[in-house]
């Protein structure tokens, strides 16, 4: 009798532990805010189409706001039942059109991109952020910390089609982000040159503070990178 009791208690504990592990597995440690230079969206990987709302402004735009783990892995599709619902974002649409436009072809109103990002990444931040607060947080973080283009221009780094030294670009980006460890990603332009594509900064899990990125993806850049005009 006692053995049976212990056994069922043990199984019960195992089940609780498994449920707890599933919950922990869907949590996250920090956010990557990935911003991209729209002039570098076109290249060997994809061609670029302006959204139906028109050519985006000359500014870095959001590419992703990704809940991530300190070991660099990025959870995805954490809640397949939580579908994107644009009506929940009606007060944010004009800000999203400016700061998070789709550049994919064919031209679109960007809704599909936001939906993909919510379902793939946003659902993994549900312990802290519902759909509205997730997008509001991404916009707030982008607009309140660092204007990347403005900060680079202060140091004479312009999107003028010239080639820049990778190390000086990284040095200037780091100082633009108050000394925090940030990352860069390059892709290839139509001629196969390495071009400055995205900037990875890291935000604590509450979405309040910049932090040193615990880990960064491979930059995939040459020693000299093109900063194309837009
Ligand atoms: P993710 O799905 O968030 O991991 O990001 C990578 C995907 O997002 C790739 O398929 C990219 O082509 C796509 N992507 C990144 N930036 C944009 C953009 N501005 N417009 C449309 N698609 C994009």
TrEMBL record:
GO annotation, cellular component aspect: extracellular region
Span of the signal peptide: 1-25
GO terms assigned for molecular function: ribonuclease T2 activity; RNA binding
Domain of life: Eukaryota
Keywords: Disulfide bond, Glycoprotein, Signal
Pfam families per UniProt: Ribonuclease_T2
One BP term from GO: RNA catabolic process
SUPFAM superfamilies: Ribonuclease Rh-like (SSF55895)
Record-stated family: Belongs to the RNase T2 family.
UniProt-recorded name of the protein: Uncharacterized protein
Organism for this UniProt entry: Rubus argutus (Southern blackberry)
UniProt lineage: Eukaryota, Viridiplantae, Streptophyta, Embryophyta, Tracheophyta
